[in-house]
Write a structure and sequence with these properties.
With 120 residues, the chain is an alpha+beta fold. It has a domain of 66 residues: OB fold (Dihydrolipoamide Acetyltransferase, E2P) (Beta Barrel). It has 1 helix and 5 strands, in the order βββββα. It has a 5-stranded mixed beta barrel with strand order 1-2-3-5-4. A hairpin with a 5-residue loop joins strand 2 and strand 3. The relative contact order is 0.17.
Length: 120
């Protein structure tokens, strides 16, 4: 994989130090996100942004192909990976909560009967 300046790629967080975040991009390339490249705001604790093992997006700001090292940034991008959550839309039935109101007393009676059987 050829890494170029300005490209946004995935990386895995491998280390966290007070001065920045170490990441691995593939079997050869590693990178550092210096604390100054984490946020436009003051960064009190790097641990507030990532944890070891996180897979994040990083922007390449410099490439050293001789040492297989990249200088990286996350302050201008959405670096957290979004989990693909499929949210089902709740469709209200014509009965609305009537079904629940009807079933609730039945469920309570069933539960009370089970409690009585186990307590005997």
């Amino acid at each position: 994989m050829k890494f170029t300046k300005g490209k946004i790629v995935e990386a895995t967080v491998t280390g966290i130090e007070p001065y920045g975040i170490f990441v691995s991009l593939d079997e050869y390339y590693t990178g550092l996100i210096h604390i100054s490249e984490i946020s436009h705001n003051f960064v009190r604790d790097v641990h507030d942004y990532v944890k070891i093992g996180d897979v994040i997006y990083v922007e390449i700001i410099d490439v050293d192909d001789k040492s297989y090292h990249l200088s990286l940034s996350i302050k201008n991008i959405r670096y957290k990976k979004r989990k693909n959550q499929i949210r089902k839309q709740i469709v209200e039935t014509p009965q609305g909560f009537k079904t629940l109101a009807y079933k609730l007393p039945i469920w309570i009676d069933e539960s009370l009967q089970k409690i009585e059987k186990t307590s005997k």
